[in-house]
Every structure is written in structure tokens, then in C-alpha cells.
Amino acid sequence: MREGLILVLFLLAMLWIHRYIFLYADDLYYNRDAQYGLSYLPEAILDELNMNGRAWIGGAMILILKPQIELFRLLNPLILMLVVYILAKMATLSEYSWDVKKGNPSLWIALLCSSLFFLFLPLRIAHTTIYYAACAFNYLYPMALALLYAYLLYTRISSYSKRKKGWLALLGFFVGSSTQQVGMIGIGYTVMISIYLSLFRKKTSLRLFLPFYGTIFLGYGIVTYGSLRRLFWERTAGNDVVLLEVITELLKTNLYSSPAAPFVLFIGLSCIFWLVTFSTQTTYRKPIHNFKLVFHGFLSIGLSLALMGYIYFLLYKEVPIELTQENLFSFYGLSILGFAFLYLFSLVYTSAILLVKKNYPFLLFNSINAIGAQIMLVVVDSRFAAAYKIMFPSLLLLSIFIIYSVFAFRKNTLYLSLAFFMVILSLQERSLALAAGVILLLTLGHYLFTWSQIGESERKGKFLRYSLVALFCLIPLMVFAVTLHGYYLASIPQNYNLRAIKQYHNLGKEGDLLLKKVPPSYYGYNLGNWNSMPYFMKQCYGIKENTPIKYIN
Hints:
There is one protein chain. The chain is mostly helical. 72% of the residues lie in helices and 1% in strands. The protein has a two-stranded parallel sheet. α1 (2-18) runs parallel beside α7 (107-120), α7 (107-120) crosses α18 and α14 (261-281) packs across α16. The chain is globular, with a radius of gyration of 25 Å.
């Protein structure tokens, strides 16, 4: 009941904001091409294959965007709801998933967390991924397929019939042939899941995975063909890759930027609490146990200091991040690289320990895939290294680490208060940060009180914990409300222009076309096209090239 209610409320929220989403940038090209009819579809798919290898994605965009934006406004919320569900299922995957079909009491908490993750998604990420059709098809939908493929491959490979395995192998082909990033993620899942289940868990034979290797590599071969053609074209045009610039942009996009900050802080804090938990759960009888205690202590202290420096220099001082040949080996350059290494090492190490202790492999699988999906951009699609859309696949994978940690530490008031404080700091709102600081001090005061009055303030602790959970839910709702309002305001002139274009058609495409200017903003994508009406936009909306266009102030 709770699970269904959360999914329905999330779906309604997405349907609401999608009322104010329109065709942007590349969407206009695909809608224009769709007007040529289905007979043009094979040619369009071939063009996509030769341009970037994403053949089926280009074909699907033409079909979905043929009736303007209306079909996307229904489809995209449904896909988002599916992703929310898969993330929750992955985060709560247990040993019971192998043999017993039974209710998962923790699923509703995971569903709530994954729903809040999308509601909280910073605008500079959301407006180029989930609220823009072309990028949703290239980043969100392939990731939805990859997550579904990985979940089914891990949980159903032993029980599926040959027919169902054939359908799963076909799904693997579509994952492999989707995009360069997601195809590589699919390959990573296939390799790691097959090795884990056959060699470590001894649950299946490695031979059982051979068809999946075949289909996913076949699919990736298609994307690789288009990628190589694109790479050759860019090299011919003189667009050479400058390695240090690409690495700098990847670091800025994924770690050293305000949209990435809340997730970096959340994951870093979770790693610290996991390391402390590992230390307290270990019985120290051998020298190796003492070494682990010291290592976990140094790692958690080092990561804590690194996060404090991250907050001070990035969020407070807003120090620009730029690696050059001159400063690469200076204290400044080594600090940037050092934090990145410490953060990523802590993430992978914590995920590996959780695999050993909890028999839960997806945290390690996702961490490796998330890092690999960014490293590969040094070679493939490096021109997008500075775009937030390229971090989205990795961010989706790492969201499972956040959801898993929140569920594990949901009764830890100190964890909740510190996480709340860090998330508020990442929003860079001083009044909110001050309020979060007061709440953190109250929590610390509560801990000091409980140490001196053991067992006396359990009820107060529960009230504080529930209050923190309520505040946690409130933050994403506030962020979403601001995003919703922004898209609504941006929709007013766009709806006016669409009505004016409809009236223009009703009058036989004669006379002037009177439009409103749309202020450029993040509440859409390339909204400035409305103010210049480039040729492809006129073609999309059926406006004659010689039609005089005037604007209302």
C-alpha cells in the first residue's frame, strides 16, 4: 500500500511538471524529420548510425516526437517511475531474492529515497537529462534499460526459461547499442555479474552467460562504429583532444561543482560512517585486525578533513578549479587530485567491504561502472566532458549507494543531522545553513545528554530523528517546488507562441506572426531559439521562411 502510494504521488508530480515542458533544441530536428512519414525512418536510422552509432535511439525519438511533445509528456514520467522502482529494488536486494517471493518491508523506504533523489536533482542536471526529450532518450532511457538488465541478469538468470533468457539477451543488445557510456556500463555489469555468480558464489556456470556476452558486445560494436566515424570526422576537422583539459572538466563536472556537491558530501559522509561501523564490528584478536582498525581510522579521519576542506574551498570560498601544466604538481593541483583519489578510493573500498560483509555486490558493481563511465569520456565524447548530462549515468548508479546508506543509518540521529547539514550547505543558502547548524547543535547536545543520562531520553531521541526525516523530505520538495514554478513561468510565453502559430496556420499561413520573447533560463533548453526562430524551428512548426515575425515586449 505504501509502495504504491509513493509511486503514484511521484508519477503525479512528474506529470505536473511535464505540462510545462516543450520541444527544445535537437527535439525540433527530430520532430521536423518525423513529418516526412514512416517511409523516412530507415534513412533517419542510417544517418544516426553513421553520425554517432545510436541508431535505435534516433529512430525511437522520431516516433515519439512525431506528435510534438504530447506523447513524451506521458512517456517520460512513466519511465522515471520505472527507474525509481528499479533503484529501490536494487538498493534493497537481499539473499531472499534468489529463492523466496515475499514482501520486502524496506522497499517503501527505498522508494521514498529514490523518489526524493529525482525531486532534489539540481536544475543544471535535470534540465539537460530528465526534462529535455533528446537527452532523456540518450541518457535516462538507456540507463533505465541498463539497470533493468543488470537486476534481471543478477536475480533471474538461474530461473529463467530459454525463451525468457532470449528476451533478456535481446535487452542486453539494446543496452549495448544505446550509447557509448551506457553500453560500457552494460558490458561492465555482464562481466562482473557473471564472474561473481559463477566463480565466487558458485550459483551458475560461466557458460550460461556466453549469449549475453555475444549480444551486448554485438550491440556495442554498432555504437563503436558510429563513434569511430565521429572521432575520425572530429580529428579531420582539427578538434583534437587535450587530455589535461578533459580531465579538468570531468573533475569539475563530477566532483568540484555546486550541482555535484550534495551527492559528493552525502557519499563521503556515508563512507565515513561505514568505516566507523566496520571498526566497531570487528573483534581484534589478530594483528591484521589491528591493522584494519588503524587503517579505517586514518581513512575516516582523512576523508573527514578532506570533506571539511571541500566545503570551505568549494562552497564557501568558491575557489575555481583549473588544472594546467604549470600547477599540476603544485600544492593546489595535488590537493585537487588528492581529494578525488581519496574520495573515489573510499567509495570503492567501502563498497568492496560491504560486498564481503553483507554479500551485497551492486554497490561495488555500480562504483566501478560509475567511475569507468567517466574515464571512458577521455577517449569517447570528450567534447561533452564539461556537460552535466554526462555525469547523470554515474550519478544514477551512485544513488543506490546513497539509498542503501540512508536505509542502514536511518535510526542514527548523528548521521541524519550531519547529512542534513551538508545537503543544506550544498544549496549555498545562508539562512538555511544557519537553521541546519542550529539543528546540528541540538543533535550534538542530545548525544551529550544521552551519554550522561543513559536510557532517559529515548523518546526525545526518537522525536529528533523523526523531525530530521521530515526535514529531509521537505528539502527535495522545496527544490522541486522552485523547479516547478520556474518551468511554469517559462511555459507562459511558450504556450502563447504555440497558440499564435496555430492561429497562423488557421489563417492559411498568411500575414505577420506575432510572438512573445522567451527569456533564456535553465527552465528549458536553448529557449533563446524562440527569440531568433532559426530555420529548423520554422520547419518544425510549419512556418514559411519569408513570414515576417514580430515580438511583443
